[in-house]
Amino acid sequence: MSFPVYLSGSWVLLALLVTIIYGGNVAQRHPDLGPTVAYLIGFGFVVCLGVSVLLHELGHALTCRYHGIGVRAITLELLGGYTVMEREAPRPGVEATIALAGPAVSLLLGAAGVAVVVAVPDGSIAWELAFQFAFSNLVVAVFNILPGLPLDGGRALRAVVWAITHDRYRGTWAAGWAGRVVAVIALLGAMVGYTARVLNLFGVVFALMVVGVLWAGATQAVQFGRLGRRLPSIRVVDLVRTAIGVPSQTPLAEALRRADEARATAVLVTDASGRPVGLVNDHAVAAMPTERRPWVAVDAVARSLSPGLVLPVDLTGEDVLRAVQAHPASEYLVVSGDTVVGVLRAADLASALTSRPPRSV
Ligand SMILES: [Zn+2]
Q1: Is 125 found in the same domain as 197?
Q2: How remote is the CA of residue 156 from the centroid of ligand 1, in Å?
Q3: Residue 357 above 60 pLDDT?
Q4: pLDDT tens-digit map of 128-180
Q5: Is 351 or 295 the better-scoring residue by pLDDT?
Q6: How much distance in Å is there from the Cα of 332 to the middle of ligand 1?
Q7: Do 246 and 122 belong to one domain?
Q8: 248-294 pLDDT, tens per residue?
Q9: What is the pLDDT of residue 246?
Q10: Which residue of 117, 136, 160, 245 lies most exposed, with the fewest beta carbons within 10 A?
Q11: How remote is the CA of residue 274 from the centroid of ligand 1, in Å?
Q12: Residue 160 lies inside a defined structural domain of this protein
């Protein structure tokens, strides 16, 4: 088993902030150490946080492996990370186990650290190191267990809603909203902490960065959940546009005139035997000045047809999204067996997925 481990770019910035905050704190508590040693201890705390987050992510990754889900990579952030899985968990129970494995590792390591803190002489270097280790792991555990996406607690909450409603996307949507609530509470907490002088300016900047990451992740989850909930109702047959075929080398103006006459909203390029070989791209047509259209061949604004751009008309739900993601394009040929049905535009699919559903009373 092997997978790469990355450090995110924001990690360096946050590491600097934490070194300054924690180093300043040590300098205040131990004026005898001098600023260099104090900030070195501050940096030691950052290293501890990094190791804690790595062990936390390994908790997720190894649980994935245990359930037969491959791991692509681990990316470390300061207070958490990402374990990129090869596929999604198949059941709510597996999702919850993978989500909680990380915080469980952090909690166990934190508890071990606390045991050492209690055992060694107060204020010694060993005590300081054990304290850092215990503190980082407990911070990582508590932060990640907050019940909102993109945090582990949010994934566990998603699994619970998924198990109750039998709808993974409803779970993502609900846990995304919970994540927004967590972000707002964290923001209020940072403001109260600053007013009460518990947090200094660096602390507030750090908190605001964390709140920003939380809010962005939560919003993405809400949108993805909303999109996914609409997926089952998506059918290619409802979205297909009427298309006409024109022979290769037909002038674009003539092709558009024929389409207009036939009340078709999509154009195919065909070969001598009438077989479709290209799909006219709407944006390319729009970008072509009207006065040039009689002089350019329709082929100039068409994408040649490849097997991935052909979809069966009876495709529905997640299969539509999977087919489109496998071969990203702006137009697809829709067929029923050997018969051409029409054209699916990716833009039509996107608006069907993102428009608000009609409200039911
Ligand atoms: Zn985690």
Answers
A1: no
A2: 11
A3: no
A4: 778 888 888 898 889 899 999 889 999 999 999 999 999 888 899 999 999 99
A5: 295
A6: 39
A7: no
A8: 999 999 999 999 999 998 999 999 898 999 999 988 999 999 999 99
A9: 94
A10: 160
A11: 56
A12: no
Distance 213 CA to ligand 1 centre (A): 15
CATH code assigned at 321: 3.10.580.10
Rg (CA), the chain: 28
Going from the Cα of 257 to the center of ligand 1, the distance in angstroms, rounded, reads 58
**The two structure tokens encoding residue 249:** 């080398």
Q: Is 322 found in the same domain as 274?
A: yes
pLDDT bin (cut points 50, 70, 90) of residue 359 is very low
Q: Which of 211, 232, 253 is the last residue of a domain?
A: 232
- 137 C-alpha vs ligand 1 centroid, how far in Å? 12
Q: Is 26 exposed, middle or buried (0-12, 13-18, 19+ CB in 10 A)?
A: buried
The reply to whether 111 falls in a domain is yes
The rounded Å distance from CA 150 to ligand 1 centre is: 9
Last residue of a domain, one of 184, 211, 232: 232
| CA–CA distance, 309 with 345 (Å, rounded to integer) | 11
> Are residues 267 and 244 in contact, defined by beta-carbon separation less than 8 angstroms?
yes
Q: Tell me how crowded residue 239 is: count the other CB atoms within 10 A of its CB.
A: 18
Span from the CA of 40 to the centroid of ligand 1 (angstroms): 27
* pLDDT at position 79: 63
Same domain, 106 and 41: yes
Percent of the chain with pLDDT over 90: 41
> If you measure from the C-alpha of residue 101 to the centroid of ligand 1, how many angstroms do you get, rounded to a whole number?
8
- The answer to whether 236 and 344 have CB atoms below 8 angstroms apart is yes
Residues 204 and 265 in one domain: no
7 pairs with which residues across the strands? 76
Domains of the chain: total: 3
In a domain, 249, yes or no: yes
> The domain containing residue 199 runs over which residues?
165-232
**Same domain for 88 and 18:** yes
Q: How far is the CA of 188 from the centre of ligand 1 (A)?
A: 24
Whether residue 137 contacts residue 107, with contact meaning beta carbons closer than 8 Å, is answered with yes
Grouping H, G, I as helix, E, B as strand and the rest as coil, residue 2 is coil
Which residue type occupies 139? Answer: V
The reply to whether 152 falls in a domain is no
106 lies in the same domain as 193: no
CA of 63 to the centre of ligand 1 (A): 12
